[in-house]
């Protein structure tokens, strides 16, 4: 019998004997229409593999990756079971046995080679002149901005623009930047990501090393601000992944909700029939549902409507937990279902607070304008453009 923590063994036991109260809530089981990938199915399989009734092989191992980590099942669970916490432990186990599916083991290679979950290095922030970055960021600031890796790799201009936004929100004082090409303490860093994909991949040893290294690099900061919901969730105390806090990390939405009381946007953005999509991590992990609404109200002109299922009940778009790599077609169906909800409920624009949600929903919406990211709204409302000369050739992917 394989041993896990008491919390995890209790959770798998509850699920094994449960009448599947949460079944309808799971984006993976809805998208795949398979009993095996319901919360109950995955947790029961974990229990059977743990007690040796089922042999642990590649097929069993792969099943544990059909979870986005959204915690929507927990909303309807009478035992408040944290299914992703258990399944992440199952992934850790199968990874250590060399049975992780290829998309998960590939994540470790990507981190080792490129410092983040991508197949190429982070694009340069500043190929030609260090003066542009120096004018936006201050390495001596005690507030440090760590960009979301999706932003860093796929939209580096926005990294600089967020620096300008943070300075505006910080009473005109620039903050420090910590990312490849610009480390907060003036030294170099190879870490372009918080490391959460390593945890989702089941590379527990790699994740712990990565996390300690990043915490050491950030230990002088009084406050770390990020627009990455995964980083905020994994580094904050109180979230199921956060555990102990060694650096004080705050999500940009929490920072904006506080600072927007002092800094007023120059021009609130007008949207067409907007509805707010609650990101799983922002809402169910970080408890920022109210702050998200406060920020969206301050940045936009007019009412943003609620989906029928919102806040802790909001469906998941399928973008996290490596689900989009292990089951890409099913992940796309999760995002498409959210766009269907938008159309069925009378909205024409969906607003979301996570770069990964924005990317997934835009992939299904067919138009950038249909999906609006809260960071983009903030930049627009504050009329912020990144310095044009900051990016070198090939800076954009
Ligand atoms: S998470 Fe809760 S409701 Fe869902 S199967 Fe497990 S015990 Fe049942
Ligand atoms: S956390 Fe989300 S994806 Fe994972 S089992 Fe629960 S509802 Fe399904």
Please describe what this structure looks like.
The chain is built from 20 helices and 10 strands. By secondary structure, it is an alpha/beta fold. The protein folds into 3 domains: 6-100, no CATH class; 131-260; 269-381, Rossmann fold (3-Layer(aba) Sandwich), CATH 3.40.50. The protein has a 4-stranded parallel sheet with strand order 2-1-3-4. The chain has a 4-stranded parallel sheet with strand order 8-6-9-10. Strand 3 (223-226), helix 13 and strand 4 (249-251) form a beta-alpha-beta unit. The relative contact order is 0.13. Bound molecules: iron/sulfur cluster (2 copies). One iron/sulfur cluster (SF4) is lined by residues 25-28, 39, 67-73, 83-84, 316. Residues 14-15, 18, 20-22, 39-40, 43, 73, 77, 79, 81, 83 line the site of one iron/sulfur cluster.
